[in-house]
Amino acid sequence: MLALTLTVFVFTTSDCPISNRYAPEIQRLAAKYGENAKFVLVYPVASDTPQVIAEHKKKFGYTFEHRRDSDQKLVKMTGVTVTPEAVVMSGETILYRGRIDDRYVELGRERPKPTTHDLEDALAAAIANKPIAVKQTQAVGCILSDLVK
Q: Rounded to an integer, what distance in angstroms lies between the CA atom of residue 122 and that of residue 131?
């Protein structure tokens, strides 16, 4: 039986190409772990209006919950700096923060396939009530400070 109640916040924006490239992987993880973890898309920029978010979710086939964070409260609480970036929480405790995987080495440089699956590894460990080996990684993507004006 699962002792932890997990929430996975996936920070995204409607127009970040790297975030959008991750849509299939995010959906795969939500389908695989959705019984044990609640997935929430977080839109932290004001230009992602409710209409833009609805269109974005439809275009990329997202069916799970979302939250607008245009006042940056969740960004500040979690410490995320880019989109896409994921945060796994148990209650108010951050268990993991960082990249989904290591597909992107740096901006403009991508591997054909990821060699590590950081978010999935963190979720699997948390669900099994085991220690998370890597609690924080550096995500590569659209820098939030450039998007928040």
A: 9
Reading the block at residue 37, the tokens are 């973890």
Architecture of domain 6-147: 3-Layer(aba) Sandwich (3.40)
Beta strands in the chain (DSSP E): 6-11, 37-43, 66-68, 82-83, 85-90, 93-98, 104-106, 109-110, 142-143
Over pLDDT 70: what percentage of the chain? 95
CB neighbours of residue 123 within 10 Å: 24
For the entire predicted model, the pTM comes to 0.93
pLDDT digits (tens, 9 = 90+) for 54-108: 999 999 999 999 999 999 999 999 999 999 999 999 999 999 999 999 999 888 8
C-alpha 100/C-alpha 138 separation (Å) is 10
Q: At what angle do helices 118-127 and 23-33 cross, to 10 degrees?
A: 10
